Amino acid sequence: LVLTEPLDGGLATQQAGRWAVFTMASDEHFYGTGERGTSLDKRGQAFDSYNEQVYGYSFPLPTMNLNVPFVASTKGYALYFENTYLGRFDFGVSSTEKFSYRTSRGELSYYLIVASRIQDQLEKYTWLTGRQPLPPKWAFGFIQSKYGYQNETEARAMVQTIRVKQIPCDAIVLDLYWFQHMGDLSWNASAFPNPFQMMTDFLAQGFKTVVITEPYIVSYSGNYSIGSALGYLAKNQSGQTYGLSNWWSCNCTAALLDITKPEARQWWWNKHPSFFGNELAGIWTDLGEPERHPDDMIHFLGPTAKVHNIYNLLWAKTIFEGFNQLRPNQRLFNLTRSGYAGSQRYGSIPWSGDVGKSFGGLAVQLPMMLNMGMSGFAYHNSDIGGFTNGFTTPELYVRWMQYGSFCPIARAHGAGPGVGGQDTEPWAFGAEAERISKKYIELRYRLLPYIYTMAYKNYSTGLPLAHPLFFDYPTDPYLKNESSAYMWGGAMIAAPVVAAGQTVKTFYLPEGKWVNFW
User: Fold this and answer.
1) Ordered strands of the 109-114 beta sheet
2) Which residue among the candidates 354, 425, 434, 482 is catalytic per the annotation?
């Protein structure tokens, strides 16, 4: 016997809602469901499955930017619920003997995946929803980002400095300043007068360039009136373009691209080759929850409630298919903040959003990364140093860099001086922080063959690069909810320090023969 429904019923309807209810064993543990900073084991928790933008968080949150209606169980099975509307998981909160998944609208079907180990459940689940293509090899190096490098001079200065300091680095990320108005999808000639020559020079120095894009088009952009006239922007109840007033980047009106409309997707992608050229190496797709998505907005595929969770998935599909036509012999790098079940097959690399500059913000990254790995997303990462709210100390930066060096993607990022923040480069935090950061970045490069092998295993099996200790030690009861240390591949255990003032960390070492790496 693998899974049972309670005697009083399993599948049920209540007006527009649908329920799936199951009996829960007394010693059962649950994992997955997407990006959550709460404890690894979801037993005793209830939460929504609906993508939500969060800003400046520094503590565990039950619902965040990327939700996946997939749950893995220690009882030899996993469930994938197929429904795009808002869902709700309840693991023994309403009833200590049951767990359930409830949807607000639409029809509900589910897939039952039978395998004794969670690793095998993940392998079957990713076979069903798609495996992650191998990212480009450079993506596993160190990536330097900031909000933001405001012009070509600042970008060139960073590249020159990091090379002079001999800190290994493979890419620079350009934030909002590379375009003039959000939605332009074209270079800002006043800030970046020679972008393709700049990127060519960077490539000659071993540097790739990545730029940010968003699905929102502000009224100052020429694409606003064009997209509106073509019917490619999301609409209001009257069938007109839905104007979002007081948009944060311009204090003007913005509109959301209707990514659910095939013609709109093609129109949007057709704007990419001109700013990609032959030089741009990757893209950063931001705000795709979507960040501001009123309930009364209408899309080609239906209302907000139906398309909200899959918006970023369709965006990732658009980028993936367009890039493969543009450059059939290159691998895509798409750093993104949201997604859904199956987004991984389009090469999505999710980061944990706008985290607070605090040790609390750092600490929640560990269970989030492990949960994401058990939800089909093997490349979860965070802004090294934190993004907003407060001030990153040298100690916090170093601890985050140490953790980030043992994450699938290692990328420093944060709000810079231009927006009331601080620089994010390793030398911005003093000589000692720079020295330690350089040591760990160099260590990551020494481990690149090991990391690249892990990436290939993910591509071929769906298994995450970082995984919980209980994968390897399933009979150890202590490890069912352990996330303060994790396996980095099959041969290394990582136990990052995520508390202020801590110089010694005690952690649980499973039975076996261990070697001190240092």
Assistant:
1) 30-34, 67-73, 77-82, 109-114
2) 354
For 432, residues 6+ apart whose C-beta sits below 8 A from its C-beta are 394
Catalytic site residue from 90, 123, 258, 286: 286
Cα separation, 62 vs 367, in Å, equals 12
Predicted pLDDT at 55? 97
What was the pLDDT predicted at 380?
Answer: 98
Express each pLDDT in 121-174 by its tens digit: 999 999 999 999 999 999 999 999 999 999 999 999 999 999 999 999 999 999
- The three-state secondary structure class of 357 is coil
| Other Cβ atoms within 10 Å of 136 Cβ, number | 18
With cut-offs at 50, 70 and 90, classify the pLDDT of residue 43. very high
Whether residue 38 contacts residue 127, with contact meaning beta carbons closer than 8 Å, is answered with no
Helix (H) or strand (E) segment spanning residue 47: strand 46-49
Sequence-ordered list of residues with C-beta below 8 angstroms from that of 246, at least 6 positions apart, any chain? none
DSSP string, 295-331: TT-EETTEEHHHHTTTHHHHHHHHHHHHHHHH-TTS-
Catalytic residue flag (residue 354): yes
pLDDT digit string, tens, across residues 407-424: 999 999 999 999 999 999
The 3-state secondary structure of 435-500 reads HHHHHHHHHHHHCHHHHHHHHHHHHHHCCCCEECHHHCCCCCHHHHHCCCCEEECCCEEECCCCCC
Q: Left (φ > 0), alpha (ψ -120 to 50) or beta: where does 298 sit?
A: beta
Using alpha carbons, select from 372, 391, 402 the residue that is nearest to residue 464.
372
Q: Which helix (H) or strand (E) holds 157?
A: helix 152-164
183 in Cβ contact with 221 (< 8 Å): yes
Contact 204, 159 (CB under 8 A): no
pLDDT tens-digit series, residues 349-369: 999 999 999 999 999 999 999
Q: Is residue 289 among the annotated active site residues?
A: yes
- b/e per residue, 238-273, with b = 16+ CB within 10 A? eeebbebeebeeeebbbbbbbbbbeebbebbbebbe
What is the predicted pLDDT for the residue at 306? 98
One of 52, 152, 175, 289 is an active-site residue; which one? 289
With a threshold of 0.70, does the pTM exceed it? yes
pLDDT of residue 258: 98
Residue 452 near residue 137, CB atoms below 8 Å: yes
